[in-house]
Amino acid sequence: MTLRAGVAGQPIAHSLSPLIHTAWIAAAGLDADYRAFGPADAAGFADLVAEGRAGRLRGLNVTAPFKEQALTLADAASATARACGSANLLVFEGGRLRADSTDGVGLMAALAQQAPQLDVRGRSVVVLGAGGAARAAVSALKGAGAEVGVLNRTRARAALLAQDLGATVVEADALTDAVLVVNALSVPPEIDLSRLRDDAVLMDMTYRPLVTPFLRQGRARGLTTVDGLAMLIGQARPSFRAIFGIEPPPIDVRTPALAALGETP
Q1: Do residues 62 and 87 make contact, with C-beta atoms less than 8 angstroms apart?
Q2: Please, where are the H alpha helices in the chain?
Q3: Under DSSP, is residue 192 helix (H, G, I), strand (E, B) or coil?
Q4: Which position among 17, 18, 116, 158 has the lowest Cβ density within 10 Å, counted as fewest Cβ atoms?
């Protein structure tokens, strides 16, 4: 019987998750199908989850705007998902729904791959933003032992996130000491990169474009940069393992993903 899974979001046509998971499925020789689902609204997403509960889906990755709803619909959730207040992974087992968040795993995997010299333990890092992506970043970095500051235009939202996850609300002057700055905003941040240390690392959680204006400015300063595609692939690995029960095959999925983005390796 074909295992059915996919990624749900709106909009969803841009997602590279089907390309990545389908490549792993083919390499593993699985009888499986992974595709994009684009529910129009919350009711449509709930209907899709009902399909999973009925045994017609093995699992779902979840992206905006359904991550918070995904957590509320779950019967059980990981501590990470609860801390983030959202879930990007749903696994269906015997009519029950288990939620998890692998975004933080993806973030740390991306840092290990593209900034291997970076050690955040006991050191100052700054996360820009206070939404769901920022929560995932703060949770992962706190778990790695970093001293995490949250910088957001709306201080009240930053304060709520910081209180929930044990971080600190900071102002722009905190950038001076940060060994890592993570952009968790959906728009280019308005910060002065000249404030940063010469050995600071910049990471952007988005991958369209691959080299965002934030990363481009960092590279112009000679800083190490980490892109969102590395994070996407990093979070896809534990998702594949949870849904299909095997490790992703050790094949190159970044090159075809770059091609789909119109980028060169």
Answers
A1: yes
A2: 17-28, 42-53, 67-73, 79-84, 103-114, 132-143, 155-165, 213-220, 228-244, 254-261
A3: coil
A4: 116
Rounded to an integer, what distance in angstroms lies between the CA atom of residue 77 and that of residue 100? Answer: 6
Q: Which of 4, 21, 58, 67 is catalytic?
A: 67
One pLDDT digit (tens) per residue for the chain, 265 residues: 899 999 999 999 999 999 999 999 999 999 999 999 999 999 999 999 999 999 999 999 999 999 999 999 999 999 999 989 999 999 999 999 999 999 999 999 999 999 999 999 999 999 999 998 999 999 999 999 999 999 999 999 999 999 999 999 999 999 999 999 999 998 889 899 999 999 999 999 999 999 999 999 999 999 999 999 999 999 999 999 999 999 999 999 999 999 999 998 7
Angle (deg, nearest 10), helices 132-143 and 103-114: 60
Strand order in the sheet with 89-93: 32-37, 3-8, 59-62, 89-93, 96-100, 76-77
Question: What gap in Å lies between CA 109 and CA 233, rounded to an integer?
Answer: 9
Residue 265 near residue 255 (C-beta atoms within 8 A): yes
The neighbour count for residue 255, using CB atoms within 10 Å, is 12
Token pair 């705007």 is found at: 65
**pTM of the entire predicted model:** 0.95
Task: Report the alpha-carbon distance of residue 90 to residue 81 in Å, rounded.
Answer: 11
Q: Which two tokens stand for residue 18?
A: 């089907």
Q: State the burial class of residue 193 (Cβ atoms within 10 Å of its Cβ: 0-12, 13-18, 19+).
A: middle
Q: Buried b vs exposed e over 91-118: b needs ≥16 C-beta within 10 Å?
A: bbeeeebbbbbbbbbbbbbbbeebbeeb
The tokens describing 160, both together, are 């709520």
